């Protein structure tokens, strides 16, 4: 069942004002007639003419809006100077109400254009269906475009213009939840490596569980790639790395490692390089983002270590890749565990907990319960030490000086970090990142 209706009047010429009012009235009448049982939310999207204010456009449409009592409380006019700005505002309204199924009523010749905007600003969480808005002037059928025909792929230059419009709009949005903050480990020498762990502040993601510096887009979540890309651009500016030379692991919750410069696996949870200026990153939203640095051989790595990856030894697999590929000495490699869910909050079913108990009984609390508490950080440290990493070369939540602790519990700090465990399926993601300075 349609949850929202978007009426796109954005491209209609100003000289057809009477027609616009009539079109809108007819469209609303049709919506009201078909939706007597379940009245959808209705958004009317129109162009704010240069020099005018949004309220001017809304007042112009008022005659057509009057009289629709069943829609009145669910009806909103959205005016903006660009399609990107108007559509992004509509998206915010949909997200506030957790709406996903949308009917778009628009001129036939604007359909292909609108689909490009929607592809960039929405994810697969949303479902769109399209209806034609029949536009007729005194002289007959109104031709909105002389070149574009429905079903025809938009020329690449038109797509590029839309992408540019969206990017410029997003770049102009204010940062949310305060300044962008980066946590840095004292263990990694900053004269050789650029590194850090992100927090949730300083980005433009506005959905509560994703707000604000979400750095991962998924077809199952509501933050589109363009928003994540803008968050990454802001992070890169603040941290000082090149976002065009940024490589994030392709999470599989396993132990495969990608060697930069060699054939990239389809999925991998570890990545290593000895190339300067290349930034490696691992996500985390309870899982551990782990960073690796060898200041002697000047090599680095990043790994994503959830409970499955921890048991499969993804951290040691990343270390071993640095040793075999770059001749690193095990005793020179520094390892930092980033913000992740702590043993105070994280539970697993008893069967899975047994595996951690085998690594060390201290990795499990309330072992005899149905869902014991698990310390995946302690398990990671133990496996690294057994593999040959020096205990003093590992920085995690065991540090005695709490001013040096950056391995916070993500579930315990909703103001600072995202947490899948705490926030559910539409959760945000922070990252750990590292590169070798030029």
TrEMBL record:
Keywords of this entry: Acetylation, Cytoplasm, Endoplasmic reticulum, Hydrolase, Immunity, Inflammatory response, Innate immunity, Metal-binding, Nucleus, Peroxisome, Phosphoprotein, Transferase, Zinc
Enzyme Commission code: 2.4.2.1, 2.4.2.28, 3.5.4.4
GO molecular function terms noted in the UniProt entry: copper ion binding; hydrolase activity; S-methyl-5-thioadenosine phosphorylase activity
One Pfam family linked to the record: Cu-oxidase_4
GO CC annotation terms, alphabetical: endoplasmic reticulum; nucleus; peroxisome
Family matches, as SUPFAM superfamilies: CNF1/YfiH-like putative cysteine hydrolases (SSF64438)
Catalytic activity: guanosine + phosphate = alpha-D-ribose 1-phosphate + guanine; adenosine + phosphate = alpha-D-ribose 1-phosphate + adenine; inosine + phosphate = alpha-D-ribose 1-phosphate + hypoxanthine; S-methyl-5'-thioadenosine + phosphate = 5-(methylsulfanyl)-alpha-D-ribose 1-phosphate + adenine
Subcellular location: Cytoplasm; Endoplasmic reticulum; Nucleus; Peroxisome
GO BP: inflammatory response; innate immune response; regulation of defense response
Family recorded in the similarity comment: Belongs to the purine nucleoside phosphorylase YfiH/LACC1 family.
Record's subunit section: Interacts with FASN. Interacts with SDHA. Interacts with ATF6, EIF2AK3 and ERN1.
Protein's UniProt name: Purine nucleoside phosphorylase LACC1
């Amino acid at each position: 069942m349609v949850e929202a209706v978007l009426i796109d009047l954005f491209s209609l010429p100003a000289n057809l004002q009477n027609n616009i009012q009539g079109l809108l009235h007819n469209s609303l009448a049709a919506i009201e007639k078909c939706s007597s049982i379940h009245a959808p939310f209705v958004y009317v999207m129109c162009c704010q003419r240069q020099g005018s204010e949004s309220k001017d456009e809304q007042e112009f449409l008022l005659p057509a809006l009057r009289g629709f009592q069943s829609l009145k409380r669910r009806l909103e006019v959205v005016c903006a100077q660009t399609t990107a700005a108007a559509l992004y505002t509509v998206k915010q309204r949909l997200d506030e109400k957790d709406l996903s199924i949308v009917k778009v009523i628009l001129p036939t010749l604007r359909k292909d254009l609108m689909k490009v905007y929607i592809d960039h600003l929405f994810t697969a969480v949303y479902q769109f269906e399209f209806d034609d808005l029949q536009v007729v002037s005194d002289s007959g059928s109104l031709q909105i475009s002389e070149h574009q025909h429905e079903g025809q792929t938009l020329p690449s230059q038109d797509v590029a213009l839309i992408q540019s419009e969206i990017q410029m709009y997003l770049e102009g949005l204010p940062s949310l939840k305060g300044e962008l903050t980066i946590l840095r480990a004292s263990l990694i020498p900053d004269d050789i490596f650029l590194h850090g762990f992100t927090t949730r502040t300083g980005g433009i993601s506005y959905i509560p569980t994703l707000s604000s510096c979400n750095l991962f887009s998924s077809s199952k979540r509501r933050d589109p790639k363009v928003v994540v890309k803008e968050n990454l651009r802001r992070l890169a500016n603040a941290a000082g790395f090149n976002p065009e030379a940024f490589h994030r692991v392709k999470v599989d919750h396993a132990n495969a490692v990608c060697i930069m410069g060699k054939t990239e696996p389809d999925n991998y949870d570890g990545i290593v390089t000895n190339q300067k200026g290349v930034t490696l990153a691992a996500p985390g939203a309870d899982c551990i983002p782990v960073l690796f640095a060898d200041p002697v051989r000047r090599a680095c790595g990043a790994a994503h270590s959830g409970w499955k990856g921890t048991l499969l030894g993804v951290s040691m697999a990343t270390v071993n890749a640095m040793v075999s590929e770059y001749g690193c000495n095990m005793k020179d490699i520094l390892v930092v565990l980033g913000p992740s869910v702590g043993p105070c909050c994280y539970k697993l079913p008893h069967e899975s907990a047994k595996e951690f108990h085998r690594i060390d009984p201290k990795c499990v609390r309330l072992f005899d319960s149905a869902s014991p508490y698990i310390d995946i950080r302690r398990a990671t440290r133990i496996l690294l030490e057994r593999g040959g990493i020096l205990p003093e070369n590992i920085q995690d939540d065991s540090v005695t000086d709490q001013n040096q602790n950056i391995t916070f519990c993500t579930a315990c700090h909703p103001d600072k970090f995202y947490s899948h465990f705490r926030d559910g399926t539409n959760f945000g993601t922070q990252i750990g990142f590292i590169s070798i300075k030029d």
